[in-house]
Amino acid sequence: MAHTVFVPKESEANETRVAASPETVKRMKGLGLEVVVEKGAGLASRIADADFANAGATLGTPSAAKTADIVLKVRRPSDKEIAGYKKGALVIASMDPYGHESVVAAMGAAGLSAFAMEFMPRITRAQVMDVLSSQANLAGYRAVIDAATEYDRAMPMMMTAAGTVPAARVFVMGAGVAGLQAIATARRLGAAVSATDVRPAAKEQVASLGAKFIAVEDEEFKAAETAGGYAKEMSKEYQAKQAALVAEHIAKQDIVITTALIPGRPAPRLISAAMVKSMKPGSIIVDLAVERGGNVEGARAGEIVDMDGVRIIGHLNVAGRIPASASLLYAKNLYAFLETMVDKEKGEAAVNAEDELVKATLLTHGGQVVHANFKDAAPAGTAAAPKAKPAARKPAARKKPAKAAAPAKTEGNS
Is 292 a residue of the active site? Predict the structure, then answer.
């Protein structure tokens, strides 16, 4: 019997995106799946119920989740939603599990096979499934648009009979997917753009977009990248030199956009209150990491803070501020992943534990938490599972050098 996919309306108040589009509904139907979309699920993304119905979906209510074999969501489900899902259902979403281990445990206890799309491996096969990149790309674009909206001057240089308006100076901190799109967008608007990143390889990418690269380019910097393309931890001496250079540069900027996030950790602090105060009144800072504590001292989630005339923009869910575009891309990411698990002849999805995509993204399965990073998770109000006792010590084997922490995954560094 063909499996049923349920696409709910997102329950979180500020979530405007939806996990399917008319195009992906047609494709899921082509796989032999039945598709139910909750009424109103796509309205905030400018997708009418009639559009989903015309694509072959049945319009339903939240109760449809009780019989669905597959649930596609933008954000992880709430405790109430988890309680309403069918045991054994596949739940695919951006789970944001770090700091929400009790929800992971609850999904395991409910017998769900829960997948975290943001854990998709960075391999060629999975590029079309990379939600971090698709959403960070839009967030980088929107960050510049938000900055330009708050900035009370023109962005490009304008030469008029009455005089010349200088180009706005924009500094982008982090040259991952979000940062590179911010650079490109600011350049299109005519700004004079500069950028920085801890990876030497980013210099060429920044230059290719017509921006100036800002970094202390000594011998340590030139060696500051692993074979896998990640940044190495820099010495305290280098960090001090780079901080001084950046502080001096920020004081001259009109707009600064920060994009640094590391999965599972608080956002690194890039801009101090003293740096903010060094900027001219009327300057703008956009903090794309505000949901994880922020890159900017003084930033507040969901607010625009005025600090001595410098406005710090801390909008939440920045990709969701352009939901019509964000939903179309996100829906394609989810469909591409789901397709790999569907038997097209039967119209049924199954979890192949040996698939490298499944290994990387599967949080819970068979009534258990199976992802190595969350095996000690426990539902809210219960004690965490006791950690296994260490095995008897064996003769030390030669260890491979550990990889440095990956750069900000939220901005989809590549």
Answer: no
DSSP state of 99: T
Type and span of the H or E element at 342: strand 342-343
pLDDT at 401 over 60: no
**Cα atoms found within 13 Å of the Cα of residue 124, Cβ hemisphere only:** 0
Nearest 5°: the CA angle 381, 386, 387 is: 135
Residue whose entry in the numeric block shows the structure tokens 């903010």: 276
Catalytic residue among 102, 127, 325, 414: 127
pLDDT digits (tens, 9 = 90+) for 249-278: 999 999 999 999 887 788 999 999 999 999
What's the rounded Cα separation, in Å, for the pair 174 and 199?
9
pLDDT of amino acid 264: 77
Active-site residue flag, 287 = no
Catalytic site includes residue 133 = yes
Identical fold for domains 4-130+322-374 and 140-321, yes or no, is yes
Catalytic residue among 69, 94, 130, 199: 130
Q: Domain spanning 140-321 has what CATH number?
A: 3.40.50.720
Question: Considering only 260-264, 272-276, 322-326, 400-404, which range has the smallest mean pLDDT?
Answer: 400-404
What are the extents of the domains in the chain?
Answer: 4-130+322-374, 140-321
Q: Tell me if residue 122 is catalytic.
A: yes
Tens-place pLDDT, residues 8-41 = 999 998 999 999 999 999 999 999 999 999 999 9
CA distances from 235 to 6, 180, 218, 227, 311 (A): 50, 26, 12, 19, 32
